[in-house]
């Protein structure tokens, strides 16, 4: 791809290109700044790598205007408003996924009542249950299990060993990575005379369009209502969503987060690694929760939060500063108490 074609491609994808190089060299791949060669395009999205930018041998780099002067003379600068987003588009363009052959592998078991769309690919040892509906261009890789009544909309891709339990639905162009389990029974048990009576989990899991569900994610089906994941949600590896959880559009959930039952997370939220929530809570739109935050009450205002129990991030930072001062304050308090005892003793003696 020539640089002129690359710039035109970015403009077509709504990237603001402020400057495109006059030199129209060929670019064939993407690479990091430090190891890029003359046919590679790289990017700078973090000032920590400014030294690497100044020394790069890349054929072209995607940079903001503030860093255009830092690009070496032998490298073409493509000035854009968002280098990281532009890089993602270019990488997808230059490194497309390998094509997948449509068809059903001879070891797969597809129930006769299942409905398959056009150009569907079903890999080795896949099981597709009764009345499942598989949309056009769906890819189901090896050893997946699609239970009865499941709906996979157009363009869904399931990596190996994904399990989707009965009657769940996955929206168009969503990708679910290896080992995820969608629609298993929620953790519902009624205590009675020292024993646990299982509560039937009668809802489904409904996942929206264009989502990314990571490896070994577990999303439990609802007890009565559905567990719902909105459109454009991204979920990292080893996340658990309990029964009746609701996740709003455009939210990001990072690895090892646990969301307890019936908690509702708003749109465009970010839950960083190992965040945990209690059940039956409401987290409003536009909330960011820092790593290992513990959510025990509703979060009603957008903003950044941290700590356990959760508090606004700036307050949490102040608390951490005070916490580090506790040993020193303890010693000072001991000294003051000792001095006070001495003064009281002197006062008593004088009487």
Q: Which residue ranges are poorly predicted, with pLDDT under 50 across at least 5 consecutive positions?
A: none
The CATH topology of one domain corresponds to UDP N-Acetylglucosamine Acyltransferase, domain 1
Q: Tally of extended strands? A: 38
The radius of gyration computed from the alpha-carbon positions, rounded to a whole number of angstroms, is 28 Å
Distance between the termini: 96 Å
How many helices? The count is 4
Q: What is the CATH level 1 assignment of one domain?
A: Mainly Beta
Global structural class: alpha/beta
Rough outline: flat
CATH superfamily of one domain: Hexapeptide repeat proteins
**Main beta-sheet strand count, sense and barrel state:** 12 strands, mixed
Return the average pLDDT rounded to an integer.
96
What oligomerization state is this entry in? Answer: single chain
Second-tier CATH architecture of one domain = 3 Solenoid
Proportion of helical residues: 10-25%
* Spatial strand arrangement across the major sheet: 6-9-12-15-18-23-26-29-32-35-37-38
Percent of residues in beta strands:
25-35%
Keywords: Acyltransferase, Lipid A biosynthesis, Lipid biosynthesis, Lipid metabolism, Repeat, Transferase
EC number: 2.3.1.191
GO molecular function: N-acyltransferase activity; UDP-3-O-[(3R)-3-hydroxyacyl]-glucosamine N-acyltransferase activity
Pathway: Bacterial outer membrane biogenesis; LPS lipid A biosynthesis
